[in-house]
# Entry
Amino acid sequence: MHPATPPAPSPDVLPIRRVLVSVFDKTGLDRLAAALAAHGIEVVSTGGTATALAGRGVAVTDVSQVTGFPEMLDGRVKTLHPHVFAGVLARTDRPDDLAVLDKHGIARFDAVIVNLYAFEEAIRRPGCLPHEAIELIDIGGPSLIRAAAKNHAFTAVVTGPEQYDELVAAIAAGGTTRAQRKLLAARAFERTATYDAVISWWMAGHAGLVVEGAVTIPAACDATDEAPLPSRMSLELERRMPLRYGENPHQAAALFAPPGTHLGLAGLRQLAGKELSYNNLLDLDAATRLAGLIQDPGAVVIKHTNPCGAASAAGIAEALAAALAADPTSAFGSIVAVNRTFDLACAESLTAPGLFVEVVAAPAFEPAAVELLTTKPAWKASVRLVATPPGDPWEPTAGLELRGVAGGFLAQRPDEACDDPATWRVVTTSVPPAELTPALDFAFTVVRRLTSNAIAVCRGTSLVGAGTGQTSRVDAVRVALEKAGGRARGAVLASDAFFPFPDSIALIAAAGIAAIVQPGGSKRDAEVIAAADEAGIPMVFTARRHFRH
# Structure
């Protein structure tokens, strides 16, 4: 009795008889080597990979035996040779391709197994020098991957250890299918695109186009207040966090971020609570950006991307209590962020009767605070605790803040630099008392994160009234003063842009505001100053507008 003849593979299945292996990351090489050896697959390899495979029992042909050249230039040139690339790119359904291989004694590769030098990991390492990064710009690896991916009808391409199990299973099954090769090729092009995008971003900085995440001014340019923006941006994004829905339940949504980025909201760590929503993330962005502007221990309460409470104090718990007291009605169901470690005293102030917040964000959390919030019955099932990472969140986008509009993106430098009260100018006859300087500084900091037209009323370093998103400045003033109520008397008022008319000053004076801070720059500044002088209210110009649309 003769053994059964194995069935012929289906036309779209290509057996794997000869492979090229060159991997920087040796993870998972044991199981790959075992499969290659067990099935008698001819293996061509390079340098350290050849040594590693041989040490695992695989018979290896060094690539130099195929090319007829040794590795040279410290390993910069290994696989860049027709005997390699023709073997990867030849089409087996083309007699002319096969004739060329036969004429030159070139054998085909059925699979290319390559992963790339760890360039991204290197540049994120503190102290990485330019020449070290440059040596980790892979040349042969991306070329091999692209060649095999282009020729995926006849050649399989494997680009990471996470794909080894799939390859091993295909070897055991008699070969790779056309569908498998097509999917592997798509993944391969994704990988090289990401790799090149990271190199492009880094190289721009190395060439002086982008330095420390900000575009520098070439020598031929005339400098104004801002450096020029790049003429072109390559943005590679990966889906980082699937979301249940967008702003409304009928909208699909997810958080995307540049690969490898762990800064800003892309790097947050959720310690407890339900999954974050699209609106949570928008509010978290507003909360952490304002908290980051406050220099002293500070806390922010956000509702629909606007602060309804903000305060700084000697301690973080005191600041949080003051921020929550600014508008207790709006604080219910809000987002809270602090700029210091969230401690037990903070947790205790949150758990006061009648109060609930959706998310708490902080650089770090005391274990006792986490324990209290995650065990208290009214809180444990819902409240989300989020630790935010240090670092410049704009670094991955070359120092630019991007905002989607229909058909494109708007790009601008983020409005993150702190204002300096020493540069401000008193424009009225009366001068604000020195003790009001911290309040004026704080108010002008908070108003930067209110939606325009925006007005902030602050007592000391606590927000007590905000007018946001109004279509006229006088309406924003009216709303802010109404929110502040009796707390407006003796408080200070900040405007994110100039007062176009003196009508707001009458309302401000009637409320008992002690001082005003605004950018100035209106054609009617003289009328506004005269109204302030008549009311006896000192007014300061900052010469810097802070619209937030």
